[in-house]
Amino acid sequence: MTFGVTLPERGTFDAWRMAARLAISHRIAPADMDWTGANSLFAAAPLPAHPGTHQILVPQSFVHLASSVIWHSDPERFALLYQALWRLDRGEGAPLSQADPLGRRLHLLAKNVGRDIHKMHAFVRFRECPANGPRRRFAAWFEPEHNTLEPGSAFFAKRFGDMDWMIATPRLTARFQDGRLTFGPAAPRPALPDDAAEGLWATYFANIFNPARIKLDAMQSEMPKKYWKNLPETRLIPDMLKDAEARVQRMHAAGASQVRPGAAAISTRYRAAMPQVPEPNDALPDTLDQARAAAMTCRRCALCEGATQTVWGSGSRDAVLMIVGEQPGDQEDLTGRPFVGPAGQILQQAMTAAGIDPDRVWLTNAVKHFKFTAHGKQRLHLPPERTEVERCRWWLGLELAFIRPKVTLALGASAAFALTGRDTPLPKRRVTVEQGLHEGPVVVSWHPANSLRRSDQDQQNRARNDLARDLEAAFALAQDQMQTVKTLPTAR
Questions:
Q1: Sequence-separated (6 or more) residues with CB below 8 Å from residue 133
Q2: CA distances from 104 to 99, 101, 471 (A)
Q3: What is the value of pTM for the model shown?
C-alpha cells in the first residue's frame, strides 16, 4: 500500500516532521511513501490517524539538517529526508555523513538553502510607502530560488522591528505589522514608489565598488544577474565598468603589497634567460589560451616584480577535478609549470596512490607568482597575503570558467580562502564539501608541503596517506557529479 502526504506551503518543516514521525511509528518504508500528495498520478491512502507503537530518537544534527533542507525547491527533498530518517532508525550506514551519497546530497541542498537566505538578506531592497499610522511602512519584491522567505524573514523582523514592512515573492508573502510577523499567499509584484534614500545608497555603492573583481565568476556569484532587475544600484554598473581599468591602475599605484628588499635583484639572473613579456592586453579573454596569455602580463599586485614569470595552470581542459594549491615555489617559478617541486612530487605520488588519471585533472594555484625572501643566493618561500590572494582571484576565476570542473580540491588555507572566501581553520573543514564562490563544490584538504614539515617519518607517512585519501574522495565526488549530469532527464 502507498501512503500519500500533502504538505502546506507555510509551516512546511513542522508539517513534514509530524508526518514523518507518524509514518516511522508505523514502520512505513520509504518506498511506500508518496510525498507528492495530491499531485501524484496514482491513488494513495492517507497516513494512519494515530501513532504506531514504534518510537525513534534521532540526533539533533538530523533535525538541524532537515530544518534547512526542507526549504529547498527540489521536489525530492521530503523523500530524501525520510530515507535518511529510515536509515537512522535501522542503523544502515551513516546517512548524515558527507562521505555517504545521500548525506552528501542533503548537505549540498542545505548549503544551497543557506546561500539563498544569504542572498535574500543581501538583495532585498525596501521602498517606503505612505504610512497609515505612526509607524513607517515599507515594501519589497524578491524572487528567491528556493522556498526561503519563511526561514529568512526573522532576520528582517529583528533588524527592522520599528517599522511595518512586506516582502512579496512569487510563492509567499511575509508581512510584519505592529511587531507581528505573518505569512500569506503569493501576491503580484507591488507597484513600488521611488525612494529618496536610493540616491544615498547609490552613492555608497559606487564608492565601495571594487573594479578589480569585475567580469569574475566570483562577482556574479556574490551578486547574480537574476537579482539585478530588483536592485536600484545595478543601473550604475555600466558606467563603473567603463572606468574600471583606470581604477584598477590607481589601486595598483596605491600599493596593496610591496616588493620585499632584495627580491627583484635576486631574480634578475633568472629573468635574463626568459622570453620578453608582451605588453598587457586589457580585453576580456574569450578562451583559456587568451586567459593564459593575459596572465603573463599580470600587474595586479607587486609579486610580479620579484618573481621570474607567471605560473599558469596545466592539465586537461576537460578536467572533472581541479586541484588548487597555494602559490608556485622556486622550481615552478623557473619552469613556468605548477607542482614540479618537492611538494608537487608528493602530490603526484598521492594521485598515483589514489588511482587518479592525470588526464582528468587540472593543476593550478590560488596565486600565480612566487613570493619569497632573499637569503644569499637562495629564494625562500613566503606565504601570500590576503590581499594578494584576493587580487589573483581574477585568474583563478577565469580558469574555473573555462575548465568548468565538477569538483575543485583546495590544498591548504590560501587555496581554501581563494575558492570559498572563508578563512576558518582547516582541521574541521578537511574533506568536507563546501560551496565555492563560483557556486561549485569545493573539497578542502592539507597542502602536500604539510608532510615536508613533519620531522617524524611516521607523521610524514600519515600525512601523505591522508592526502591520497582526500584526493580519492574528491575524485569520486567529481565522478558522481558527472554521472548525475548524465542521468538528468533531457528537456523537451
A1: none
A2: 6, 5, 16
A3: 0.48
